[in-house]
Request: fold
Amino acid sequence: MRNILQCRVLFGFLLYVLLATSMDAQLASPSIAGNFAGVLGNLHVTLHLQQDQAGALTGTLDSVDQGAFGLSCAHVTLSGRQFSFEVPMVHGSYKGEASADGKTITGTWNQGSPQPLNFTRQITVSAPAREMATRNTFEFAANTRTFYTFVPKAEGPLPLVLLLHGSGRNGQVMVDAWAVLAAKEHFIVAAPDAYDPAFWQLKMDPPDFLHAVVDQVEAKHAVDRNRIYLFGHSAGAMYALLLAILDSHSFAAAAVHAGALQPDNYRLFAYAGRRMPIAIWVGDQDLLFPVEQVTATKKEFESNGFPIELEIIPHHDHNYYVISDEINGKAWEFLKKAQLRQPEAAGQH
Reply:
């Protein structure tokens, strides 16, 4: 009888250990170091989390649309899947729950009143593609300027796509999004940093600055000058559309995601020297560039003789990075058809 009781006690203890181990596994903290994007009301925010060797988390928060970057996060805590942090500078706090795979965080932002705020891990390309990107600097107008490049292993001269980043970003992000496609399709990508990360401006980032970037690229690899293209997202898209008007002889075509002209810029069509092909993609849920505003931009380009295409993406908001592979593929298919000067037919001179 005593042996039976001992066996029962031992069995119960083992069962308790197994259940406790199982529960600990279920409650184990996922890895959440990295970059996350979310939308708070109609504001796009990004959360950058780092984890040291001891496992302690630190972070910063960006309110992209408000131009507020690098807001320091305090008391960044992950217990099991329960995640929280504070942003003392704006008297705000966040509490949420991370998914088991660490790809999403669902929770609530509180800054006087609670608002839902869900984060999704931003997709990045594989490490080899990032390693192939190169950071470059040069002097322009008495300032040291930075741009990033990816050059595929192919003989030139090659097409070149100039990539213009969105507000609060830099050229590295754009090269990361395009490098795999550029390697496959054999074209060069170059992505300069705007003088002010919040926006592009004609005074500090004039057409001559982009021409200088092209010259820097060409100093290291042959470029097909008839096939230099523009691609921009958000603030970069707005600037690419301006350059399509003001610098039309330098680029064969332009493609943009989530951008439009301001009505004040319509007068610039008087300076357009060439009607280059343009393509625009925008989500039907984009709060920063509503479909009505983008459609008005399309009509204005059309009325001034520009061939322009517009694709409205169902159930898509402003977040380029979650569908960048799709957008970039379509953009390249559009861009590569255009050349500044058509090649001569055989036998013609």
